[in-house]
Each structure stands twice: as structure tokens, then as C-alpha cells.
Design goal:
Radius of gyration: 16 Å
Structural class: alpha+beta
CATH architecture: Roll
Oligomer: single chain
CATH superfamily: Methylpurine-DNA glycosylase (MPG)
Strand content: 25-35%
Number of helices: 7
CATH topology: 3-methyladenine DNA Glycosylase, Chain A
Number of strands: 9
Largest sheet: 9 strands, antiparallel
Shape: globular
Distance between the termini: 17 Å
């Protein structure tokens, strides 16, 4: 069975602590696979399992936004670990990242795809699409722009949000799931340092943003 295709029933979710993110983005990226992104808005709770991510290493990584230095746009990446860095791309969608490394040293992980667990009807409405069966669920959160739209993530609303806090409207937790097979490939959708093998995904999971050639 492809990993993970988990049930929509989720056990208690515990927030990840700040120390989890206070490390090299490559380690954080691998260990984020299988964790859960949560959006809590009034009585609505959206949850989805993280199935694909990419690591960006900071000022020495030409593909990273932080390569331009500590600016008003990238300040979150240079701040404390475990905070949301949200940016707008191609003039039509947002992308979600989490800051890594100690404060003052930039690094981050981009969320590329999620596997929906709960709140799928709300996600579909946010994306203005219809879900007719399980095969349509992939349309909700398979891709950085799609997942942000499904979760209502914007720069104005979420940039700088503390992703380690369960009282935050957006946070990351774990439920005991452990990834069994992780696939590593080069990063995609970029023109600089595209050869770096810093894209990580749950091998065989149908919700990844782009299939990996065998």
C-alpha cells in the first residue's frame, strides 16, 4: 500500500516543539514527512499529512530567498525557528515555508504537498472545486499553491505565525505516524541550484505534487 493514505480519523495531535526546527533544514525536511499541518479557525479544523517538502539552506543557497540577505521580505527566515514564512509567487498563489536554524541564521523548508485528513469539504470550497470521489482529493493539496489555497494561507494572515503553538491558527503536530520509505530527488520548479537532492517525499504516496520516475 502506498504510504500513507491514512484514515480520516486522527488520534490526538501534539504540537512539535521549537527545538525540532532549530536544525539543518535538510534534517528538518526529512523528519517533517508524516507530520500534520493544522488550520484551526473558529469551529473549523483542517488537517493534512505532510507528504512532500524541499529544504533551502540560507544565504549560501542561491535558490533560497534568504540568499538576498535579511530584508523586510525575508526577516522571518532569519528569526526564531518554527515560524511561517509565506510568499506570493507567479502573481497568483502563495507558498508556505517554516523557518529553521537558530535565530540570525537563515534556513527553511517549503511545503510542496499534503494528504488531506479532515475538513476536505472546507478545503474544496476554498479552492472552488467539487469532490466526486477519492480520486479528486488529490486536487486539494497536491502542490504548494493548492495547499495554501485549501488552508486559506496568505502572507497577510500567516507570515510570521508560530507553527509550534497549538493556540495558533496554523500549526504543525504529530500523531505517532512514522514514515517508512522516504524518497529523495532534486528540487523542482527552480532555475538555480536545481541539482541539489533536497526534495523529500513519502515514496509511493499519491498526493505528491509531481510523480517520481522509477
Amino acid at each position: 500500500m502506498p504510504e500513507s493514505q491514512t484514515s480520516t480519523q486522527t488520534p490526538q495531535i501534539r504540537p512539535l516543539n521549537r527545538a525540532f526546527f532549530n536544525r539543518d533544514p535538510r534534517r528538518v525536511a526529512r523528519e517533517l514527512l508524516g507530520k500534520i499541518l493544522i488550520r484551526q479557525a473558529s469551529r473549523t479544523r483542517l488537517t493534512a499529512r505532510i507528504v512532500e517538502v524541499e529544504a533551502y539552506l540560507g544565504e549560501k543557497d542561491p535558490a533560497a530567498h534568504s540568499a538576498a540577505g535579511n530584508t523586510a521580505r525575508t526577516a522571518v527566515l532569519f528569526g526564531p525557528p518554527g515560524h511561517a514564512y509565506v510568499y506570493f509567487i507567479y502573481g497568483n498563489h502563495y507558498c508556505l515555508n517554516v523557518s529553521c536554524e537558530p535565530e540570525g541564521r537563515a534556513g527553511g523548508v517549503l511545503f510542496r504537498a499534503l494528504e488531506p485528513l479532515s475538513g476536505m469539504d472546507e478545503m474544496a470550497r476554498a479552492r472552488d472545486i467539487e469532490i466526486h470521489g477519492p480520486e479528486d482529493l488529490r486536487k486539494l493539496t497536491s502542490g504548494p499553491g493548492r495547499l495554501c489555497e485549501a488552508f486559506g494561507i496568505t502572507r497577510a494572515r500567516d507570515n510570521g505565525c508560530d507553527l509550534t503553538s497549538a493556540v495558533s491558527g496554523l500549526w504543525i503536530g504529530e500523531d505517532g505516524f512514522r514514515a517508512r520509505a522516504i524518497r529523495t530527488t532534486h528540487r523542482i520548479g527552480i532555475s538555480k541550484a536545481a541539482d541539489k537532492p533536497w526534495r523529500y517525499l513519502l515514496d509511493g504516496n499519491p498526493f505528491v505534487s509531481r510523480k517520481v520516475r522509477k
